[in-house]
Design brief:
The complex is a heterodimer of chains A (155) and B (212). Chain A is an alpha+beta fold and 155 residues long. Helices cover 43% and strands 19% of the residues of chain A. In chain A, the strands form two sheets. Chain A has a three-stranded antiparallel sheet, with helices on one face. Chain A has a two-stranded antiparallel sheet with strand order 4-5. In chain A, helix 3 runs antiparallel to helix 4. The longest helix of chain A has 21 residues. The radius of gyration of chain A is 17 Å and the shape is globular. With 212 residues, chain B is an alpha+beta fold. Helix content of chain B is 30%, strand content 33%. Chain B has four helices and twelve strands; from the N terminus they run ββββββααββββααββ. In chain B, the strands form three sheets. Chain B has a five-stranded antiparallel sheet with strand order 10-1-2-11-12, covered by helices on one side. In chain B, a hairpin with a 5-residue loop joins strand 7 and strand 8. In chain B, helix 3 runs antiparallel to helix 4. The chains are: A alpha+beta (155), B alpha+beta (212). Chains A and B meet through helix 2, strand 3 and helix 3 of A and strand 4 and helix 1 of B.
Chain lengths: 155, 212
């Protein structure tokens, strides 16, 4: 979405989630709970001053089968748990790729390969030339950046 | 983003849905499709629109997905409050009135959802009700429908429905009516789910339909 809402909303959500942990004796919210909180804020704001942000929220929980879960939300506040997702113009190209490539029980390496496949497809078929993508992975050890191409503005 | 658009799409058609409920002999059935879309693009094929409120009461919500989810949460909240205070289960009639009240409260900025209520009342006889997005209730004894293909659903129900169907026949009738209707609607489909509610319990089955 537009950068203003993007920054404003994501910071609002992440800071409130951190506040929950501080206020509730270190209790961590599950990914499902965090996604529902996010959805609730989007739905509340919809009829006041909507955030034009489409969200993909992914997280790792120990007690969830396979550990990772992914939630996709649109700016109106609908939320759904999915195995793979895409927002924006990218979805027109990449959802079909993931429909084909995604399998139950893949490991991190296979998942990253699919993401790279999607990026390659966009580089080929999408009318805007954006070769600069960042790939991040969330697992039991937290969030880390797997691949970040160099910023062209550095040249 | 709307470059393939010819006509203006109403907010009730943004996500797509099909919900249907029918009464049988001492049983009710309720069914919905599985599609979640954003206008013409399909986002998920496992988004069900029927929600269990208790063992003898289901509600189906067709319309804007965000409001469908908000209403599901609100209804469970209000129902739990009622049951804590009154120390008894909520009857379908009371539930319908509650839902109507919640919708009318937002009369000039409504929830974009058109619900369908299906349950068994205290005596075990079938209860069906529907309402529009601002809570105008209509109770019937045969069938109720809602969604982007409600015209199709009305036609199928009118044709296939017979009073006093047993639970297996009711399942078959609901399944056929739903699948045939969503096949002629671009915005709903990708299979479905049917719940048959009897005194003994709830029988739920997934429907395999055209996956397009």
């Amino acid at each position: 979405g537009p950068n203003c809402d993007l920054v404003n909303f994501s910071e609002y959500i992440s800071k409130n989630l951190a506040l929950y942990e501080l206020s509730n004796d270190g209790m961590k919210l599950s990914t499902h709970a965090q996604a529902n909180f996010c959805r609730g804020e989007l739905a509340k704001a919809l009829r006041k001053g909507p955030f034009q942000v489409n969200v993909i929220l992914g997280g790792y929980d120990e007690n969830v089968p396979n550990g990772g879960s992914l939630y996709i939300m649109d700016y109106l506040g609908s939320c759904h748990k999915v195995n793979y997702g895409a927002q924006g113009y990218a979805s027109n190209f990449t959802l079909s790729i993931m429909d084909r490539d995604w399998e139950e029980g893949m490991n991190e390496e296979q998942a990253v390969k699919i993401v790279e496949h999607c990026i390659r497809e966009l580089n080929m078929r999408f009318l805007l030339n954006q070769s600069n993508f960042i790939i991040k992975v969330v697992d039991k050890d937290g969030v880390r950046t797997v691949k970040a191409d160099s910023d062209p503005s550095d040249n | 983003k709307q470059y393939y658009h010819n006509r203006k799409m109403s907010i009730l058609e943004y996500n797509g849905a099909a919900v249907i409920a029918m009464a049988g002999k001492d049983c009710v059935g309720i069914a919905s499709d599985n599609r979640l879309g954003i206008q013409y693009q399909t986002v998920a094929m496992d988004f069900k629109k029927v929600f269990k409120m208790n063992d003898t009461l289901f509600v189906g919500l067709a319309g804007l997905a965000t409001d469908v989810q908000t209403l599901d949460q609100l209804l469970r909240f209000r129902m739990n409050l009622y049951e804590l205070r009154e120390e008894r289960t909520m009857t379908p009639q009371v539930f319908t009135n509650l839902l109507s009240n919640i919708l009318y409260e937002k009369r000039f900025g409504p929830y974009f959802a058109e619900p369908v209520v299906a349950g068994l009342d205290e005596k075990g006889s079938p209860y069906l009700a529907t309402m529009d997005l601002i809570g105008a209730i209509e109770t019937t004894k045969d069938f109720v429908v809602s969604g982007t293909c409600d015209g199709n659903l009305y036609g199928m129900c009118e044709t296939l429905y017979k009073p006093d169907l047993g639970k297996e026949e009711l399942f078959e009738t609901l399944a056929q009516a739903l699948l045939a209707s969503v096949d002629r609607d671009a915005l709903s489909g990708w299979g479905g789910v049917v719940h048959i509610i009897t005194k003994e319990g709830v029988m739920s089955r997934e429907l395999k339909g055209r996956q397009d």
